[in-house]
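Review session, final week

We close the course with one last complete record, chosen because it touches almost every idea we covered. It is aldehyde dehydrogenase (NAD(+)), a protein from Larkinella humicola with 510 residues. Go through it on your own first, then we will talk.
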Amino acid sequence: MQQFLQKLKTQPLMSGTSTGQAFWHSSGEEHLLDSYSPVDGQLMARVFPTTHEDYNQVVETARAAFLEWRNVPAPKRGEIVRQMGEQFRQYKKELGTLVSYEMGKSLQEGMGEVQEIIDICDFAVGQSRQLYGQTMHSERPDHRMYEQWHPLGVVGMISAFNFPVAVWSWNAMLAWVCGNVCIWKPSEKTPLTALACQQIIKDVLEQNEVPEGVSCLITGGREVGTWLAEDPRIALVSATGSTRMGKSVAQTVAGRLGRYLLELGGNNAIIISQHADLNVAIPAIVFGAVGTAGQRCTSTRRLIIQESVYEDVKQRLVKAYGQLRIGNPLEEQNHVGPLIDRAAVSGYQSALFQIKEQGGRLLIDGEVLEGPAFESGCYVRPAIAEMPAQTEIVQHETFAPILYLLKYQTLEEAIALQNGVPQGLSSSVFTLNLREAERFLSAAGSDCGIANVNIGTSGAEIGGAFGGEKETGGGRESGSDSWKAYMRRQTNTINYGTTLPLAQGIKFEL
Ligand code: NAD
């Protein structure tokens, strides 16, 4: 690990100049970004934020690179992405450890994030030979119609702290095989993992003589993100983060009629029917609610339980929570690591207060842990609250391990509760009853982008399209046909005849 961190510090990555083909620019002298680890509170690095002048230079370099990159055949672009996947295989342990140390998720999940990068690289390689358009039969004789997909140009990516590297790869790998160039602005809370990714792919870009500017990194806070949103040179802004951020980005980008792709907050529920297999359901609930300390966009936040099994589920959960080990996420025996920072801890404490104010009862009370091994001040006890109804705090995404329990009688009531929040990311039902499962998946069922049966709300695979509805933003990333978001569609009509027949039978004679 030390060796890997040392490699990150080598020239020219930290010098603030261009890094060959992996273009990294960040030379602002003031307001250095301090990256503190929530694991032990240590200062990991101080990173230069990008100045506006630097930003303009990055965008111009990226634009120039696009003119070359768009002409590289897509399968050749795929081959370069394949080589990147190999690099990530090589550095899986080091990068996974860095993710865990900088963000605070368990080492298992840190490694899992790197595995997601590897998986999306593999997926993108195949996709590079499948950027299919359709052909249509023309109504005119001796005419042919078809559509094709072209790259957009510069794709700007704004990412959140909780998946510091995977979200970048979902976007970047597909955007690249589609022929775009990328400018990534990672979360100001996790700049080091982003630098590491640039460093890891640098050799591949150099060896393949990829033009400088195909992969760019800019660093800084919200203000740097707004530069991307405002800039008409950015063809697509793909933004992952809070709904508050998404609303701001959407309004700004829409103001210039640009394209955006939003992946925002979730408020995910599991319905536990009286027909559920609780031996499968309980570990899924606990993993979904306390994994990554409740800081996944797909974390399980609400449990909607049929009244006849309510007491049983409650008792099993209390028992399972009693076995949780909270502590250093780099130590494999621990289930729950820290929250990202003390501001997140305040948000957790405020939610606990509001639960009581809104008539909730804490079945397992939360607390901020103190003492040796908890010096960072970011470790909290996962809490469970019984709620009388879906009150204001339940409607809100608190990015911490708090699970709300709600009771229902009929499945219709459960689905109404599940859908009765502003967010629409992930959902699931546990039932062995076919009618219930199909009802939940039908048009009258879950209104979320992700709806599962007998698995939890989190832990999506890259093969499916990932994203959600309503305040989650409507975007889709990763698998299925998500690649289309990174391309523009062009309809082509070709006349190979000797006359000029017009569509709709219109006659125009000279
Ligand atoms: P955040 O909104 O505070 O920040 C996310 C990113 O947006 C950061 O890079 C930040 O600098 C930037 N940003 C903030 N305000 C901006 C603005 N007005 N204009 C441009 N950029 C701006 O979110 P966070 O705390 O880092 O992450 C947690 C949130 O992200 C949660 O709500 C979580 O559900 C969501 N999330 C969603 C998904 C998904 O796929 N749906 C995935 C991961 C995280």
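Two points worth writing down before the exam:
The chain has a mean pLDDT of 94.
The pocket of nicotinamide-adenine-dinucleotide is lined by residues 158-163, 167, 185, 187-188, 221-222, 225-226, 229, 240-242, 245, 248-249, 263-266, 297, 397, 399, 425, 472 (CB under 6 Å).
Good luck, everyone.
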